[in-house]
Structures are given as structure tokens and as C-alpha cells.
TrEMBL record:
<keyword id="KW-0677">Repeat</keyword>
<comment type="similarity">
    <text>Belongs to the PPR family. P subfamily.</text>
</comment>
<dbReference type="Pfam" id="PF13041">
    <property type="entry name" value="PPR_2"/>
</dbReference>
<feature type="repeat" description="PPR">
    <location>
        <begin position="25"/>
        <end position="59"/>
    </location>
</feature>
<dbReference type="InterPro" id="IPR002885">
    <property type="entry name" value="PPR_rpt"/>
</dbReference>
<protein>
    <recommendedName>
        <fullName>Pentatricopeptide repeat-containing protein</fullName>
    </recommendedName>
</protein>
<dbReference type="InterPro" id="IPR011990">
    <property type="entry name" value="TPR-like_helical_dom_sf"/>
</dbReference>
<feature type="repeat" description="PPR">
    <location>
        <begin position="60"/>
        <end position="94"/>
    </location>
</feature>
<dbReference type="Pfam" id="PF01535">
    <property type="entry name" value="PPR"/>
</dbReference>
Length: 139
């Protein structure tokens, strides 16, 4: 429903799940968050993530990738950086999707300073887990 631009119906169904004794899983939340982001409903996306953090299910790497990309695409760069920091603080691994988001953020004008602390957090985290991850960013 979200992909077919029927977000209102999808939201009604999503909201009705608990009353039908169904508990939405992380994938269900991710689909709703992505639908809200696609429609520029950033606060609604953030509210769903807050609900996940408060009540479950646990957000995953995909959840954070959707949030980062969505805020970036809606020119909310500070929020995108905030969610990237949160993702790193929660020890989510970098993958192709969120690395692409980082690349886009780094390429944005005037944002170099915001990432110095983030890079300092990412590199020790990756090395302490016994792996060294090399990410090439064409900026």
C-alpha cells in the first residue's frame, strides 16, 4: 500500500494491527517509515522510530538507513547526521546503503566539520571488532 501511494490506508491498517492481536515487526515499521519519508512526512517517520525504541520491535540497520537517507533527501542534514551518529553509537555495521548515505552527506557543502567526530567513532569501533573495514568515498 505504501508503494502504491496509498499511505493513508496503509497507516489505518498499521494502526489497527494491535487491536487484532498482531504486533508489527521491524520490517513492517520500516515499510511505514519509508512510506512517510517518501511523502515528506518526516515527523511521522521519527514518531514511528521513537515508538520502536520505546515499545519494540528493535530498529535495525535498515531502519537507520531509511531515516538517514530520508532526512538527507528532504534537506534535513542535521537530522540525517543525528541519526547517523545514533546508528554508530548503537554499533550498527556500515553497509553499502548507509555508506552511500555517508558519502552523500560528506559531499554536501560545508559539512566536513560535522563528520570528524563521527569518523573517529567509526574507525575504532570497526577495528575493535577484529575487522578492518575500508570505505572509499569519492568526494
Amino acid at each position: 500500500m505504501c508503494k502504491s501511494n496509498n499511505l493513508d490506508e496503509a497507516k489505518k491498517l498499521f494502526d489497527s494491527l494491535p487491536s487484532k492481536e498482531f504486533k508489527p515487526n521491524t520490517r513492517t515499521f520500516n515499510i511505514m517509515i519509508q512510506g512517510f519519508m517518501k511523502d515528506g512526512l518526516l515527523q511521522e517517520s521519527e514518531n514511528l522510530l521513537t515508538e520502536m525504541l520505546d515499545k519494540g520491535p528493535t530498529p535495525d540497520n535498515v531502519t537507520y538507513s531509511i531515516m538517514i537517507r530520508g532526512f538527507f533527501q528532504n534537506n534535513e542534514i542535521d537530522k540525517a547526521v543525528q541519526f547517523l551518529n545514533d546508528m554508530v553509537d548503537r554499533d550498527f555495521p556500515l553497509n553499502a546503503t548507509n555508506t552511500s548515505s555517508v558519502k552523500d552527506l560528506l559531499a554536501a557543502d560545508g559539512l566536513e566539520g560535522k563528520f570528524i567526530g563521527l569518523v573517529d567513532k567509526i574507525l575504532p569501533m570497526r577495528q575493535s571488532k577484529g575487522t578492518v573495514t575500508t570505505v572509499e568515498l569519492d568526494v
